[in-house]
Structure formats: structure tokens, C-alpha cells
Write a structure and sequence with these properties.
By secondary structure, the chain is mainly alpha-helical. The chain is about 75% helix and about 0% strand. The protein has one domain (about 5-250).
């Protein structure tokens, strides 16, 4: 007799599990340090299932009742996926600022050129940007900053009830502002190289006017790359440190904290 009430509650518990897993799984695809493409899929899925199992008993009082129709159920699951992607993307944007800055720096150093594309990564990426994209998750995991997005994910259920669609206008405005801040941070991190590259190119332009027969690009490219590498050697630690400080500030402002 006791098994019948338990069996009757299984559909509601299954629906609640799907709702929680949808938001957490979508967020974990994007979260820094956890949603990296280099991380094996089995590890990411296992982490998502473990986090869902931990949060489900706590979130049980907030979960809605089982909908009467499948269409409402699918709409609620889609809303949860959208909420998870939105929150994960907000956390991911500031992390992307570091590899974007690496792309800027590589362009100013002469390591990104349509004339001389990278034979391994192609013309759309550079070794320096790839290096910074690997440094970012390592710094996030080593510093413990991954805990802030996870806390924001758990706290997001207080702001956005399970199964409720995000406010489109407010969420879009938040993402646009975060994108602008990420690109501004990337430009600030690469600012010394942008200024040095501008001065260098102006000097080469004057030299080309004074000595028209000189192949400026071929003659000064090795010196250009060497000077950029020396400047990177001096500033790499400061760039990562400045990015990490801003990362802590930005992640602490995530919705749900």
C-alpha cells in the first residue's frame, strides 16, 4: 500500500529532475573551467548529474507541479535551457576577454596576417590567442573562482522561478552590456601592444616614404616580432593578473549572488 503513493509521485519528481537538469546542464556547457571543450564529455555530464542530485532536494519546494499537457512541459524545459545558457554566457564573456586580448596582441606583433597565415591553426586564430584560451580555465580553476558562477547558478532559482521564461528585454540588455565590457577589457589588456604597434607602423610608414625602394615589410618583420615577444615577456604576468582581478569583480556581480 505504501508503494502506490510513491509510484504516483514519480512523474512529478521526474519532471522536477528534468527541469533542474535542463538549467544546470545548459549553464555547465558555458561556465568557465567546467564547460571547456578540452574537458571530456563524460566528465562534464558526470559533474552536471552530481550537481543536479545535490540541488534537487533543496530546490524541490520551488519546483512547479506537473503540467497537464506535454506542450507546456516542453515550453518550461526550453525556458530552463534558455536561463542556463544566459547565465553561463554571462560568466563566459569575461573569460573570453583574455583570448580576445591575445588575438589583438598577436595581430599587433605580426603573428596574425593574411599574408602569412598560421599553417596549423589557420588564418582565423593564432598561437598566442590559443595559449591565453588555455591559461584562462587553468587560472579559474586554480584560483577557486569557479565557485562564484556555481553559487550564482544555485541562487538564480530565487530570481527566476523554474519553468518561467526570462524577461527578454532585460536579459538581452544584460548580455549586450556584458559583451561590450568584455571587448573593452580585452582592449585594455592589449593596450600597450596596440600603442606600440601604432607607433611602429607610423615609423615604418615614414621610412617607406623616405626609402621607396626598401621592402619595409620583409626587412623589418623579424625585428617587429622580436620586439613584440620581448614586450610580451615583460607584460604577460601583469596582463593575466589584471584579467584575473577583473574576473573576480565581474563574477561577483552575476545574477543570483
Amino acid at each position: 500500500m505504501e508503494a502506490e503513493p510513491l509510484l504516483a509521485q514519480l512523474p512529478a519528481w521526474g519532471f522536477g529532475l528534468v527541469l533542474v537538469f535542463s538549467r544546470i546542464g545548459a549553464a555547465c556547457v558555458m561556465l568557465p573551467g567546467i564547460g571547456e571543450a578540452e574537458l571530456p564529455t563524460t566528465v562534464r555530464v558526470g559533474f552536471t548529474l552530481a550537481l543536479t542530485a545535490l540541488l534537487l532536494p533543496v530546490l524541490a519546494p520551488l519546483l512547479p507541479a506537473l503540467p497537464a499537457t506535454p506542450w507546456i512541459m516542453f515550453a518550461m524545459v526550453a525556458a530552463e535551457i534558455g536561463t542556463g545558457l544566459w547565465l553561463g554566457w554571462l560568466a563566459r564573456l569575461v573569460v573570453l576577454a583574455l583570448p580576445i586580448a591575445g588575438q589583438f596582441i598577436a595581430s599587433q606583433m605580426g603573428l596574425a596576417s593574411v599574408i602569412q597565415p598560421d599553417p596549423d591553426l589557420g588564418p582565423q586564430s593564432t598561437v598566442l590567442a590559443r595559449l591565453f584560451s588555455l591559461v584562462a580555465p587553468v587560472a579559474v580553476l586554480a584560483s577557486g573562482l569557479y565557485a562564484l558562477p556555481l553559487a550564482a547558478l544555485a541562487g538564480s532559482y530565487r530570481l527566476i522561478a523554474p519553468g518561467v521564461l526570462l524577461p527578454v528585454a532585460d536579459s538581452t540588455q544584460t548580455v549586450l552590456a556584458a559583451v561590450g565590457e568584455a571587448f573593452a577589457l580585452a582592449l585594455r589588456l592589449a593596450a600597450p601592444f596596440v600603442v606600440a604597434g601604432l607607433v611602429w607602423q607610423c615609423g615604418l610608414g615614414l621610412l617607406a616614404r623616405l626609402v621607396p625602394n626598401l621592402q619595409v615589410f620583409a626587412a623589418f618583420m623579424p625585428a617587429h616580432i622580436l620586439a613584440g615577444l620581448l614586450l610580451l615577456l615583460l607584460l604577460a604576468g601583469g596582463i593575466v593578473s589584471a584579467w584575473q582581478d577583473q574576473l573576480h569583480v565581474t563574477l561577483a556581480l552575476l545574477p543570483g549572488l
